[in-house]
Amino acid sequence: MAEHHTLADRLRARAQQLGLSPAHVAEMADVNRSFVYDILRGRSTRPGMEKLGAVAGVLKVDRDWLIHGIGNVEGTSPFIESPDEAFVAIAHATPRPSMGGGAVVEEFEETADRAYHFRRAWIRHNLKANPAQLRIMHVEGDSMAPTLLDGDAVLVDMARRAPNPPGIFVLDDGLGLVAKRLEHIPSSDPPAVRVISDNGFYSPYERTADEIHIVGRIRWFAREI
């Protein structure tokens, strides 16, 4: 959901939520009352960051939340999102990334009744991702242990296919679909990547960029206990 609130809106709503008057906020933050009132009246579009940080501390929010609406709020946000807009469904992808060999990538089939739901704001602000490019997959095998274990659910961002910076990806290395740690090999010609298993039992190997198909970068995982 797009952020429609202003700095003044956020300051006013949070103060009201905590039962604080503007004058009380100013007193607790040790700033002039005019500093707070000018923001609330729209007269201060570029308030001092140090003073605004003190106000944010009183309101128990990140300063960036006051300015941009992005960041942490202690407890619940003063703004109630519509449930339909607050969460977005991320479907499963049919192939299963096997850590040590697996099924070849063929296609992604979405199954609505198996979808995972994530907060849209978390995807937008934390992952900086497009929900349409995300898929849930499950890993098999032990080659990425202890980082990823057999059966873990992983959230794959299919828009991020470049192994720079290094990270854990789902890829088809020519033998099957695997979850591996990838890093670009500097000055390689043709461009090549090192394919690494976190489990030391499996040896790393190298592939040229043309020899592997990177499905996407793993951004999150979940595990049953």
Folded structure, characterized:
β7 and β8 form a beta hairpin. The protein is α+β, with helices and mostly antiparallel strands and about 220 residues long. About 5% of the residues have low confidence. It is about 25% helix and about 25% strand. α2 packs across α3 and α2 crosses α4. It contains seven helices and nine strands, in the order ααααααββαβββββββ. It folds into two domains: about 60 residues, 434 Repressor (Amino-terminal Domain); about 140 residues, Umud Fragment, subunit A, CATH 2.10.109. A seven-stranded antiparallel beta sheet has the order 3-4-9-5-6-7-8, with no helix packed on it. A two-stranded antiparallel sheet has the order 1-2.
Briefly say what this structure is.
The chain is an alpha+beta fold and 225 residues long. The protein is 25% helix and 23% strand. Strand 7 and strand 8 form a beta hairpin.
Layout of helices and strands, plus pairs?
Elements: H1 7-17, H2 22-29, H3 33-40, H4 49-59, H5 63-68, H6 83-86, E1 87-90, E2 116-119, H7 120-127, E3 134-138, E4 153-157, E5 167-172, E6 177-184, E7 192-196, E8 205-208, E9 213-222
Antiparallel strand pairs: 1-2, 3-4, 4-9, 5-6, 5-9, 6-7, 7-8
Helix pairs in contact: 2-3, 2-4
Features of this protein?
Umud Fragment, subunit A; alpha+beta; 2 domains; elongated; 225 residues
Strand tally: 9
Kindly state the mean pLDDT as a whole number?
83
Q: Could you estimate the helical fraction of the residues in percent?
A: 10-25%
Overall CATH class of the largest domain: Mainly Beta
Order of helical and strand elements: HHHHHHEEHEEEEEEE
CATH architecture assignment name of the largest domain: Ribbon
- Quickly give the structural class: alpha+beta
Strands of the widest sheet, in order across it, are 3-4-9-5-6-7-8
Number of helices: 7
Question: Runs with pLDDT <50, length 5+?
Answer: 101-113
Question: Which word captures the global form?
Answer: elongated
Per the CATH scheme, the topology name of the largest domain is Umud Fragment, subunit A
Strand content: 15-25%
Straight-line distance between termini: 33 Å
Q: Looking at this structure, what is the CATH superfamily of the largest domain? A: Umud Fragment, subunit A
Largest sheet: 7 strands, antiparallel
